[in-house]
Automatic annotation (TrEMBL):
UniProtKB keywords: Branched-chain amino acid catabolism, NAD, Oxidoreductase
Family as reported in the entry's similarity comment: Belongs to the HIBADH-related family.
BP GO terms, sorted: L-valine catabolic process
Organism lineage string: Bacteria, Pseudomonadati, Pseudomonadota, Alphaproteobacteria, Hyphomicrobiales
Name listed for the protein in its UniProt record: 3-hydroxyisobutyrate dehydrogenase
Keyword NAD: yes
Catalytic residues (positions): K168
All copies of domain 6-phosphogluconate dehydrogenase NADP-binding, residue ranges: 3-159
């Protein structure tokens, strides 16, 4: 049993903390939202009055917060209270630069740290099937592995500080671009009188094959479990895809990488979100492309 503090008990953090409790760990949690605290208490999390109180005595501190500024302000508040030798694991999806600053703040207090964003969404958080992509020292990763294994199915050590966030935004940039590509192909097929099933049967066994097509098909029918069959309820909301594409563009600008399709994908999802569709599953971008074709 490990004494774990869990800060940020929202859609992802709530079920992740519940899985740590179910595995027999002593979990003390904190969130700003009373509803999140109530749900965590029901799941067996000991609820603290503040983030500082939650981390007192913790061997491991897990954060699952919205963005870099939240992680840095929470680190600022709690690091002086965290016991020397404890391990900080940030599972939030944040910008690479903030992740590196967070590692630096932890190191300055004598603490080991890992950036360990996840893939797998709320379903994966509930079912403990998340994939973690981690950045930090090999020693920090080795210490985190047993805890990550109770919240997910796979953990990949991607490299030093910030490498987990880098892997996450690179993967999601591929995903955003490929979803738009698959959706464009279906819209073109519709205009050309080709059935959804015919395009699927060909492309899913040809060189157009990809996850956005075969697992998450953006038209109803060929892949019954995809959100297209459920009126594009997320799944993975377009607003979150836009967040990740923005992080990728920030990182690309900072690193001097040419990512023209990533930039275009960000602009397309930004227009979709501006049209009030941020809460729609990201595969619903096909509706936006159909509309654009009517101009
Ligand atoms: P969420 O908004 O449901 O949860 C975030 C929680 O953090 C909220 O409950 C909020 O009250 C809490 N919080 C904010 N500031 C705080 C503070 N100072 N102290 C304590 N709690 C604080 O968001 P989520 O969907 O759980 O996502 C969390 C992170 O995981 C994000 O970085 C997101 O990009 C990433 N992520 C989400 C998904 C998904 O499908 N939802 C998938 C992969 C990664």
């Amino acid at each position: 049993m490990t004494q774990i503090a869990f800060l940020g008990l929202g859609n992802m953090g709530g079920p992740m903390a519940a899985n740590l409790v179910a595995a027999g760990h002593a979990v003390t949690g904190f969130d700003l939202m009373p509803d999140a605290l109530a749900a965590a208490r029901t799941a067996g999390v000991t609820v603290a009055d503040s983030a500082e109180a939650a981390v007192t005595g913790a061997e491991i501190v897990v954060t699952m917060l919205p963005a870099g500024r939240h992680v840095l302000s929470v680190y600022e508040a709690v690091l002086p209270t965290v016991a020397v030798g404890a391990l900080m694991i940030d599972c939030s999806t944040i910008d690479v630069a903030s992740a590196r600053v967070a590692h630096g703040k932890a190191a300055a207090q004598g603490l080991a740290s890992l950036d360990a964003p996840v893939s797998g969404g709320v379903g994966g958080a509930k079912a403990a099937t998340l994939t973690f992509m981690a950045g930090g020292s090999p020693d920090a990763f080795a210490r985190a592995e047993p805890v990550l294994a109770t919240m997910g199915r796979k953990a990949v050590h991607c490299g030093e500080a910030g490498a987990g966030q880098a892997a996450k935004i690179c993967n999601n940039m591929i995903l955003g671009i490929s979803m738009i590509g698959v959706a464009e192909a279906f819209v073109l097929a519709e205009k050309l009188g080709l059935s959804h099933q015919a395009l699927f049967d060909v492309a899913s066994t040809s060189s157009g094959q990809c996850w956005s097509l075969t697992t998450y098909c953006p038209v109803p029918g060929p892949v019954p479990a995809s959100p297209a069959n459920n009126d594009y309820k997320p799944g993975f909301a377009a607003a979150l895809m836009l967040k990740d594409l923005r992080l990728a563009q920030e990182a690309a600008a900072g690193a001097g990488a040419a990512t023209p399709l990533g930039a275009q994908a960000e602009a397309i999802y930004a227009a979709f979100a501006a049209a009030g569709q941020g809460g729609t599953d990201f595969s619903g971008i096909i509706r936006h492309l159909r509309e654009a074709g009517r101009d």
